[in-house]
Task: inverse folding
């Protein structure tokens, strides 16, 4: 509220372009926080909404159901690995994390082990802005340090050190293993972002770490929650990032790209064992019920988005984006002030040694015809999968030029 950076009014959006109110067009490298994977104003997604709107915009999902929710749940169960068979449809990614945490706590309550109510998370993680979600975000360098002492107190393991694509060091899991063994009697679940830690630092870590975490959860009787809100639906080159490690969580959180960026919707999937144990507990059901859960409009466009993704050859698109980002961002590593360049799937990151001036950088990127939103030390891009090579080149070229200008 005090001297804010001016926002950029958007008049319309089409494909990968945002048209500003002053007539300028920007190539969107953010996919509106990684959600608009098919681009803007897609005719097939528009049609799904229009057709659903003629039937009903909303109906409560308590005591009632509707075909669009059933269709979406069936697709999600078919897409995700066994034994994830039960789906809870909720409002947003952050709420899906709240739901996952409550599921884990209720599960252990139903098993007569109510002392298992805390979480083990990773430093450098980010899981949302609601209270339980904030409690498992990085406690010292995250966005939520102002609430320290108010939030539930959780356990944190160091961020994985071994990078994706580099040799595995068995010592990387040592501290995590120590923590889960020491606190197993208090732990309801481990929660982490698989392979890519997103808003907490855009860090890409080794799949073996994830495999080891799954194995340790099994040994110590702790549930595993994977937060695939950012990574789900192809962003890492796999449909779900857990596939890089060939593991299945007990609870899976999805959001963002679920509806192709059209409407807010999220899903929390779990196993029949977890779901039925909760229902055999004292409450007799899972204790959560958002007003707009399974909203028919959101479910209809989510189903259309999933079908469109599966039919689109997304694997080839994401692979091509990855190859182009690697080829065109590599030169940034030689620029003054650049600490690291890393790419995985349809995500490219340039990390600086020092925090950047986001207002100045954003202004320069807009002048160059692209939309990126840097934060802290990171300039990163997560474009829609439909971006054409020439548009992606315009983006990477603008990043190189602006960073070179910063270094002069």
Result:
């Amino acid at each position: 509220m005090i001297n804010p950076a001016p926002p950029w009014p958007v008049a319309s959006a089409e494909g990968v372009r945002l048209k500003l109110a002053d007539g300028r067009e920007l190539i969107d490298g953010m996919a509106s926080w990684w959600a608009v994977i098919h681009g803007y104003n897609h005719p097939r997604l528009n049609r799904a909404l229009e057709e659903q709107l003629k039937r009903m915009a909303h109906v409560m999902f308590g005591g009632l159901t509707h075909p669009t929710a059933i269709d979406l749940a069936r697709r999600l169960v078919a897409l995700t690995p066994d034994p994830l068979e039960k789906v809870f449809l909720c409002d947003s990614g952050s709420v899906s994390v709240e739901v996952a945490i409550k599921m884990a706590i209720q599960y252990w309550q139903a098993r007569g082990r109510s002392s298992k109510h805390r979480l083990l998370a990773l430093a450098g993680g980010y899981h949302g802005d609601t209270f339980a979600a904030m409690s498992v975000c990085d406690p010292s360098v995250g966005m939520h340090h102002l609430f320290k002492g108010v939030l539930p107190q959780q356990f944190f393991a160091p961020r994985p050190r071994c990078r994706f694509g580099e040799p595995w060091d068995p010592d990387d899991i040592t501290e995590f293993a120590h923590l889960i063994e020491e606190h197993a009697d208090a732990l309801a679940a481990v929660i982490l972002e698989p392979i890519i830690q997103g808003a907490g630092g855009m860090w890409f870590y080794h799949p073996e770490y994830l495999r080891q975490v799954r194995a340790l959860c099994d040994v110590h009787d702790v549930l595993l929650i994977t937060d695939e809100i950012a990574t789900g639906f192809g962003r890492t080159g796999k449909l779900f990032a857990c596939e890089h490690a060939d593991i299945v969580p007990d609870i899976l959180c999805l959001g963002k790209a679920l509806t192709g960026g059209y409407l807010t919707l999220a899903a929390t999937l779990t196993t029949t064992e977890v779901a039925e144990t909760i229902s055999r507990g004292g409450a007799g059901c899972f204790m959560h019920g958002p007003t707009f859960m399974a909203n028919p409009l959101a479910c209809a466009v989510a189903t259309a988005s999933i079908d469109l993704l599966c039919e689109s050859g997304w694997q080839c698109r994401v692979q091509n984006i990855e190859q182009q980002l690697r080829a065109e961002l590599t030169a940034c590593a030689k620029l003054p002030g650049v600490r690291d360049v890393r790419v995985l799937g349809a995500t490219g990151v340039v990390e600086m040694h020092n925090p950047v001036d986001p207002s100045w950088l954003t202004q320069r990127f807009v002048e160059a015809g692209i939309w990126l939103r840097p934060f802290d030390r990171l300039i990163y891009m997560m474009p829609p999968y439909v971006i054409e090579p020439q548009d992606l080149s315009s983006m990477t070229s603008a990043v190189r030029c602006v960073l070179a200008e910063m270094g002069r």
